[in-house]
Design goal:
- The structure is a homodimer of 513-residue chains.
- Chain A has 513 residues and is of the alpha/beta class.
- Helices cover 38% and strands 12% of the residues of chain A.
- In chain A, the strands form 2 sheets. An 11-stranded mixed β-sheet of chain A has the order 1-3-2-6-8-7-12-13-11-9-10, with helices on both faces.
- At the A-B interface, helix 15 of A face helix 15 of B.
Chain lengths: 513, 513
């Protein structure tokens, strides 16, 4: 019996992807041999005006209204997003499977219904490959798992029952524990604004797809910033809810059962209101009836009764934010003041300690479970997998050491909660939200995303956090700070990454916690 | 330096207790040398008529109304409960510390306030010793921990801020992992209805205290039935909320950090409405601000909009309920039908498998952490500690085996949820609640409480469950079933325990899940 090398297995997955892309009619292209640094000029050239309009101009909620008013059919809309997704793949390598036949069949079915089947009736919806898809394989970016079936994913089923059209599945990095998007199967996904920068990860394919305008509504997963990092790097909205609100089953990964820090699904969108729509659709389906481990609580968007007290986290005390991020913070802080809000400075509470606890909680088996899946096929570890598993504190623990580590986590959580409560000392008004970066700048160059803390802090504390777009890097407004003296080696690494010309035009987002 | 034996250390804790009881004025007694089987005849003889009335006739909510109307002062009420608690200690051995001076000082302080400090203003409140008390020691019934300080307990602080008077701390078993109440420090707590039966555990001291009428409102903890078992054995209400609703910090025990199955605090009360009061007081304090791991959701009592569909779990498929329990189920089922509810039979879903998973989750370190605390002082393991640690499946696991076990747990939870949902197949009306025993009969004789499943099943699934009193064992109505053929050895053990004369007069309760 011939032994299949890992390279041959990886090729099978790429062949599967390419066969799915070959269905596109009319086909995309031809594209220039040398792709432009900024891929966003391509859609206008390679799509019909109507396709461009449908995919470029509207948000999910507007498209749903148009579908309802029959200004567009689900089939026409789906075909437009399918073609733009195919173009996105050619431009930034973010697709693992284009669901051409399935999506068009589904759209036709929905168009034929007399009544809407649910609140997402006819809307194209994109999903990270790792989350599986009924009847499709799911490898979660491990070569060893290529050809394995998807597990049942209740949240996919809920979205389907609400009437969406699944049309594309997107890339993620090896181990899904990078803030970038590179693996041995599909290779590297790049940022649509600048192919020399990363789209982020682990939900990097979704991030790039939304940044590229090839999706208005997608879903990723987040255990350290995997929804919010890509949202920030690609200039879209991304939300990480509190854990145990959304069903988690169906998320294929190593270390299933490791629950000392929990991942959660979360949406990526073009507009804030669509986040509410996502949460409302999923929670109205009462997922706690399927998974008793979830909290039974419907989605209640906040309505502000008095002006917020907003605390600005300029940096985390470890790694300083880049100039365009500091400008974004200043601009939004001023906008908050103009809107009558109180704006104060946030004092970060021992983020280095938080990261030490969290990185040890990520891999209490010393990374063994992950490494075994990688070694099973013979594929090599990619550099950022090696980097995260080799964080200084990571050790293989026995159960009692794990319990002690959970104790450290809980003590940190309680201390941070007290730190937050103490903000009410002066005026009896506790800080309502923290406004902070999700990454310390715009999207970094490849292999350089090593600053988890701005997002991961809120996973350790299990606070909900949302990313929203603010501005773009502007070489004029955001010169490098040549006078700056780095605080430490991590800060030096991050500081030296910044070059206003390299980053120019890249989106800059902020995070509300 | 002289080495203190474990016996001497245990004596120190008893001396501490006895010194606290010596403060009682006027002192209790003298009691008969040979205590009666049923201790409930003593209070009328040994308390003043007013003390008896105050402690016997009212529920917490009624007492709060009387305090508000100044029909009684907090001091008078507290002194009455202090004296009845001292009598309870003499009769059934349920007290670790009587807080005579502290409680009276607190009551006087509250009486002196112009306005109530909170919704529990002036009400005596009893607490399990393990939960600690500001400024007091806490040994959690391990000899090794005698003399150690209490850790901060946010739920105690919330109750205090609501105006309660802590006046007594109560017993629990060694390791707090028994459904009885025996340890090497305070010895055995017995059932107030019948000293040959157990009050249950681990919140056995509270159960006995409430059963004895020496408390109207107390708090225990529950990871397998430790609130509900004692409530059932002593004929009072007991509630186990879903985990992560109430703050857990301050519950002193071994294996801190083991969170694959979570304990929770819970109230014991004389009336159903007082459970709502407890939950409302604690959740109105927004404990999630102190502990970000908690769910932020206020307490919303259920109001019934249409008749319930009630499923009766006659037994768990493993151990059959005793005759008085079956009668209680029949009586309540009939009452439900009379109230217009639909009543169906519940089919238990693989409870043996559930117990196997749960018992392994209790001790994934093979019991090592618990045994070490016990061995540290040299005290011996009491029989039920040995029994629970030696459940057939219990093994010391490495982290990856623990993850696999969590996977088994989640698969069981999902399968059970589907089993429940399937009850809607016939008529599109899902079962709303399960009505079932909390123990397969009345309180069992000492050393015989080996049936965890009726309560622990709902800990594994993390469903809220409440126990309420129904009836008493009646030798006439509840003869033994001589014809019965046991299903298995556990069932045989349980079946042979039943003797209508031994159990006569003991309370019988049911559980709603």
């Amino acid at each position: 019996m011939a032994i299949t090398s890992w390279q041959e297995k990886a090729q099978e997955a790429r062949d599967y992807r390419d066969a799915s892309l070959a269905k596109v009619k009319p086909p995309i292209g031809p594209l220039p041999l040398s792709l432009p640094v900024n891929s966003l000029e391509l859609p206008k050239q390679h799509l019909t005006p109507r396709e461009y309009e449908l995919t470029q101009e509207y948000d999910a909620i507007q498209l749903l209204a148009m579908l309802k008013e029959k200004e567009v059919t689900s089939e026409e809309l789906t075909r437009a997003f399918l073609r733009r997704a195919a173009l996105a793949q050619a431009a930034v390598n973010c697709v693992t499977e284009l669901m051409w036949d399935d999506a068009i069949e589904r759209a036709k079915f929905l168009d034929a219904q007399a009544e809407p089947v649910g609140p997402l009736h006819g809307l194209p919806f994109s999903v990270k490959q790792q989350h599986g898809m009924r009847g499709k394989p799911c490898h979660a970016s491990y070569v060893a798992w290529i050809g394995e079936p998807s597990t049942i994913n209740p949240i996919n089923d809920i979205l389907w029952d609400a009437g969406c059209v699944f049309y594309v599945r997107t890339t993620e990095p090896q181990s899904t524990m990078h803030l970038e998007c590179n693996n041995n199967i599909t290779g590297r996904t790049v940022n649509p604004y600048n192919r020399n920068l990363t789209p982020g990860g682990s939900t990097g394919g979704e991030g790039a797809l939304l940044g590229y305008g090839a999706s208005v509504f997608g879903m990723g997963g987040d255990i350290g910033g995997s929804v919010r990092g890509p949202a920030s790097n690609n200039g879209v909205y991304g939300f990480k809810p509190t854990s145990k609100r959304l069903p988690l089953r169906g998320m294929k990964c190593a270390m299933i059962g490791n629950e000392t820090v929990m991942p959660t699904f979360g949406p990526l969108t073009r507009r804030r209101e669509t986040i509410n729509l996502f949460m409302d659709v999923v929670l109205t389906a009462e997922p706690w009836r399927l998974d008793p481990g979830l909290f039974s609580k419907s989605w209640t968007p906040v309505s502000l009764e008095k002006p917020l007290k907003v605390a600005i986290q300029w940096d985390d005390g470890v790694v300083k934010s880049h100039p365009p991020m500091l400008r974004a913070l200043r601009e939004v802080a001023q906008a908050c003041r103009n809107a009558g809000m109180e704006v104060v400075d946030w004092v970060s509470y021992e983020h280095e300690k938080a990261w030490d606890i969290l990185s040890r909680l990520y891999f209490p088996d010393g990374g063994l479970d992950t490494i075994e899946v990688i070694e099973k096929s013979g594929e090599p570890l990619v550099p950022l997998t090696e980097w995260i598993i080799n964080q200084p504190g990571v050790r293989k623990l026995d159960i009692r050491k794990l319990w002690a580590l959970c104790g450290e986590r809980d003590a940190y959580r309680a201390a941070h909660a007290a730190h937050w409560s103490d903000t009410a000392d002066a005026d009896r008004h506790e800080v309502d939200v923290i406004l902070c970066p999700a990454v310390p700048g715009a999207a970094p160059p490849h292999e350089c995303a090593r600053c988890w803390d701005y997002t991961a802090q809120w996973n350790l504390l299990d606070y909900p956090a949302v990313v929203f777009p603010v501005t773009y890097v502007d070489a004029q407004k955001d010169p490098a700070n040549a006078e700056y003296t780095p605080l430490n080696s991590q800060d030096k690494f991050n500081h030296e990454l910044y070059d206003p010309n390299l980053y120019g035009g890249a989106p800059v987002c902020l995070q509300v916690v």
